[in-house]
């Protein structure tokens, strides 16, 4: 009986220790990812946004507390008070397993229907999903639509915050979008390929039926206005170098016109040449 009681007491102590060491992951607002354990003596933008959140949550009333990016004694006291309110382990430190900083309101859920974290996926599966986020704006609940997309790290230089992109919905309708945020911390997919998450805000709302659906994001690197465009297959390679188009004349005959090529996109090519005008029929080999 004594040994049984001792074993029970030991098990209870183990459970208590486990519960004491448990920490729940808390989402806070901030653009700097949690990359270290913040503790007294640390300083930086991550500490500042932690202090901003503590103050917004009502834990900034301690003597000497200020949002200054320095993890001092007042900040530690605020952290301890916050941890105590959560019922988690109180130690005055905030680690990467304690808090997740996000740029704004987010919807927690599956990345896209049918795809789970860690799942092997085939090439060509879209990894951009349309989500709806409800948050207070000027005291009124409002819904905004965002697209969260994975941009390969090798193509990171293609986008900047504020850039315009095109979002193609499953019904082939195009909706304009603006890059709101590019997460500076690279991630890796199940195949080990590095990418960064890009948050895109839609200029106009998409039909609610597409919330949660996969969408395609198109990036325009260079925009050529008032360009003459022909199918790329219409280009004829010249022996002396360069390209030409076989242009049909009003009498049914054809002539070759040398052209300079510009941008290629979606099977078409920009062409420039003296005498070449919009509406001229060109021969496209089959």
Please tell me about this protein's structure.
By secondary structure, the protein is α+β, with helices and mostly antiparallel strands. Helices cover 16% and strands 31% of the residues. It is built from three helices and 14 strands. The chain has helices spanning 2-21, 45-56, 73-86, and strands at residues 26-29, 99-102, 128-137, 140-152, 164-168, 174-182, 187-188, 194-202, 216-218, 228-231, 236-237, 243-248, 254-265, 268-272. The strands form three sheets. Strands 3, 4, 5, 6, 7, 8 and 9 form a seven-stranded antiparallel β-sheet that branches. β11 (236-237) and β12 (243-248) form a beta hairpin. The longest helix has 20 residues, at 2-21. It is elongated and about 105 Å long. It starts with a helix and ends in a 14-residue tail after the last strand. Mean pLDDT is 78; it is low at 18-22 and 107-126.
């Amino acid at each position: 009986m004594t040994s049984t009681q001792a074993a029970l007491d030991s098990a209870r102590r183990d459970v208590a220790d486990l519960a004491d060491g448990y920490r729940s992951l808390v989402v806070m607002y901030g653009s700097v990812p949690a990359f270290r354990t913040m503790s007294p003596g640390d300083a930086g933008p991550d500490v500042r946004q932690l202090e901003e959140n503590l103050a917004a949550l009502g834990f900034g009333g301690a003597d000497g507390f200020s949002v200054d990016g320095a993890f001092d004694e007042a900040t530690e006291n605020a952290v301890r008070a916050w941890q105590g309110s959560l019922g988690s382990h109180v130690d005055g430190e905030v680690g990467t397993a304690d808090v997740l900083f996000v740029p704004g309101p987010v919807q927690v859920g599956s990345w896209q229907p049918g795809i789970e974290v860690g799942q092997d996926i085939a090439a060509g599966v879209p990894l951009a999903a349309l989500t709806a986020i409800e948050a207070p704006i000027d005291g009124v609940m409002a819904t905004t639509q965002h697209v969260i997309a994975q941009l390969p790290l090798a193509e990171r230089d293609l986008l900047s915050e504020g850039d315009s992109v095109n979002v193609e919905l499953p019904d082939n309708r195009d909706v304009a979008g603006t890059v709101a945020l590019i997460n500076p911390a690279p991630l890796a997919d199940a195949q080990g390929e590095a990418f960064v998450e890009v948050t895109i805000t839609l200029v106009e709302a998409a039909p609610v039926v597409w919330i949660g659906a996969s969408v395609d994001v198109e990036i325009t690197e260079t925009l050529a206005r008032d360009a003459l465009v022909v199918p790329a297959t219409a280009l004829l390679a010249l022996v002396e170098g360069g390209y030409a188009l076989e242009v049909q004349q009003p009498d049914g005959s054809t002539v070759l016109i040398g052209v300079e090529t510009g941008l290629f996109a979606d099977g078409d090519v920009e062409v420039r040449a003296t005498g070449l005008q919009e509406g001229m029929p060109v021969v496209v080999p089959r």
